[in-house]
Write a structure and sequence with these properties.
The complex is a heterodimer of chains A (186) and B (191). With 186 residues, chain A is an alpha+beta fold. Chain A has a single domain, classed as tt1808, chain A. Helices cover 25% and strands 30% of the residues of chain A. In chain A, helix 4 links the parallel strand 8 and strand 9. Classes of the chains: A alpha+beta (186), B alpha+beta (191). Chains A and B meet through helix 1, strand 1, helix 2, strand 3 and helix 4 of A and helix 1, helix 2, strand 2 and helix 4 of B.
Chain lengths: 186, 191
């Protein structure tokens, strides 16, 4: 029913600053998992399996691969622009930002692990990552047992989408040309 | 389900309490005219002069008609439920000595709501009227400036008003008051 309201009137878009204050002031409860997409607060579903284990495996393997050349963050909010602060499953960040809130310039790679959220990730979040200039994003489709690597961000999405030939040595966007061993992911 | 439908399904719904706190704390600035509809903050368009003048005309005529029997409120919040607090153009309220200084009026306080629609006709009709009915607001008038038509909506039900009439005579319209016979208002020069 609210879809009619959206066609006929303007929803007020919150800024990232508004959204953060709502968190600090307790208007958004601490136990609520949310992200801000185009000024709207989106609730994230509870974390279930195999989603949680898959995200943990990837984060672990990434940490082993990057050592100190990047920071691996799990479920951390990333400020993309004035009205978007998503919470990607995994973010690979430039080293030296510990403690500070990550902004888009800090991001080397974002990874979304999708079970029920595949369309939301692909059609809502990835276009926004591309628009914000996030250089690379991976989509892990648990249902389809498929990893896709998205590169060359543009205003409407990623121009390059490829599936790596194997999961044993997936190239990471780092100067040292490290690779991550994701065998056993699916 | 499309991604748009999916995102709609997952939008966080604010409570009226959250919404009021956002106003009190300045997260919603005083320059904004908003209403809360099903937990989402909707921005109201700027008020044009035909709309503003019509609201003033009706509000003044109403006050003359009802005297001390009811309070006339203009573009003030009325809460409907935990997730909706719209700003109707005019609300006719049960009289109260504090003039609702201690809390916004709710459904039980409302005798009549009036929406004056120019570009907002569909929004008023499709979004606001069904919510007024669901909350049990006993009577709503919809003033369609473009169509030069007044409709009176009564008998609220969960999905809308069961009764819709378009009075022929704008010179003698019954206005609900808390007790006794309805007051009569003359809106002859409404359009």
């Amino acid at each position: 029913m609210n879809r009619i309201a959206h066609q006929l009137a303007r929803v007020h878009r919150l800024s990232v600053a508004d959204y953060r204050r709502m968190g600090e002031l307790g208007i958004l409860a601490a136990d609520l998992r949310t992200e801000l997409i185009d000024g709207e607060i989106i609730e994230l579903p509870p974390i279930g399996q195999p989603y949680a284990g898959s995200a943990a495996l990837i984060a672990d393997r990434l940490r082993e691969a990057v050592e100190r050349s990047a920071v691996v963050a799990l479920h951390e909010p990333i400020g993309l622009d004035d009205h978007c602060e998503p919470r990607p499953d995994i973010a690979l960040l430039r080293p030296g930002i510990d403690g500070a809130r990550a902004e888009r310039a800090d991001v080397l790679l974002l990874i979304e692990v999708a079970d029920g959220s595949l369309r939301y990730d692909r059609e809502v979040k990835f276009p926004r990552y591309a628009r914000a200039g996030i250089p690379e994003a991976w989509l892990v489709d648990l249902g389809g047992r498929r990893l896709t690597i998205h590169r060359r961000p543009g205003p409407h999405g990623y121009a390059d989408v490829m599936t790596p030939s194997g999961l044993g040595a997936v190239p990471l966007p780092l100067a040292g040309l490290q690779t991550a061993d994701l065998s056993g992911l699916f | 389900m499309s991604a748009t439908a999916e995102i709609r399904a997952r939008v966080h719904r604010l409570t009226v309490d959250d919404y009021r706190r956002m106003g009190a704390l300045g997260i919603l600035g005083p320059e904004l005219r908003t209403e809360l509809i099903d937990g989402e903050i909707m921005e109201m368009p700027p008020i044009g002069h035909p709309h503003a003048g019509t609201v003033k005309f009706i509000a003044n005529r109403l006050k003359e008609a009802v005297g001390a029997a009811a309070i006339v409120a203009v573009q003030d919040p009325v809460w409907l439920d935990d997730h909706s607090e719209p700003l109707p153009d005019i609300a006719l309220l049960r009289p109260r000595d504090d003039y609702y200084r201690t809390g916004h009026p709710g459904p039980a306080d409302v005798l009549l709501l009036i929406e004056v629609a120019d570009s907002s006709l569909h929004y008023d009709r499709e979004v606001k009227l069904p919510r007024y009915a669901r909350a049990g607001i006993p009577e709503v008038w919809l003033v369609d400036l473009g169509g030069r038509r007044l409709t009176v909506h009564r008998r609220p039900a969960p999905h809308g008003y069961a009764d819709e009439t378009s009075p022929d005579n704008l010179g003698l319209l019954p206005v609900p008051v808390p007790v006794g016979v309805p007051a009569m208002v003359d809106l002859t020069s409404l359009f």
